[in-house]
Amino acid sequence: MTITRPFRAVYRGLVYLANSPRTLIFSYLGMILISGVLYSYFEDAELGDALWWSVVTASTVGYGDISPESLPARLLAALMISVMVLLVVPLITAHFASKLIVDSDAFHHEEQEELKENLRRVRELTELLAERAGVTVPDSADRAAAPPDRSGTR
């Protein structure tokens, strides 16, 4: 087992979450519920208050009306804030940004293939017309010489 295997698994999981908003939302809700239950257990708080604490902490608002006293609850808060700030919020932002950036004018695969075939046909017809006129058509792979710069050198 290589050392990079766990990191690859985490990366694949993050990519899956980023591309699946439904899974991301369910993961977020699961994190709120689990951390609320854990907070309730660690702090001996009522579940409603613990869930409120979980939502406020996850949103990084931190009203301060409820705060952890025990070490396990404080570690839970630190983990929850870190996960929200470093993973969940960026994944949500990335998902929405990718939806805004999508180019609706981009060609689909079938359209690209049709264009390529049309260009092949135009090339064939151009070569046929050039042959009839006795003119040579430069190969499309030949690159035209770059124009000289202002000093007259290339």
Counting helices, strands and paired strands, the structural category is mainly alpha
Strand content: under 5%
**Distance separating the two termini:** 55 Å
Which CATH top level class of the largest domain fits?
Answer: Mainly Alpha
Uncertain runs are none
In round numbers, the mean pLDDT is: 83
Q: Helical percent range?
A: 55-70%
Radius of gyration from CA coordinates? 30 Å
CA-based shape: rod-shaped
CATH architecture of the largest domain: Orthogonal Bundle
The total strand number stands at: 0
CATH topology of the largest domain: Helix Hairpins
What's the helix count? Answer: 5
Count of individual domains: 2
Summarize the main sheet: none
- Note the run of SSEs as H and E: HHHHH
Question: How would you describe the overall organization of this protein?
Answer:
The structure is a single chain. By secondary structure, the protein is an all-alpha fold. It has 2 domains: 5-101, Helix Hairpins, CATH 1.10.287.70; 104-134. The chain is 68% helix and 0% strand. It contains 5 helices and no strands. α2 (21-43) crosses α3. The longest helix is centred in the middle third of the chain and has 31 residues, at 71-101. The protein is rod-shaped. One of its GO terms (molecular function) is voltage-gated potassium channel activity. The chain crosses the membrane at residues 21-42, 75-97. Keywords: Ion channel, Ion transport, Membrane, Transmembrane, Transmembrane helix, Transport.
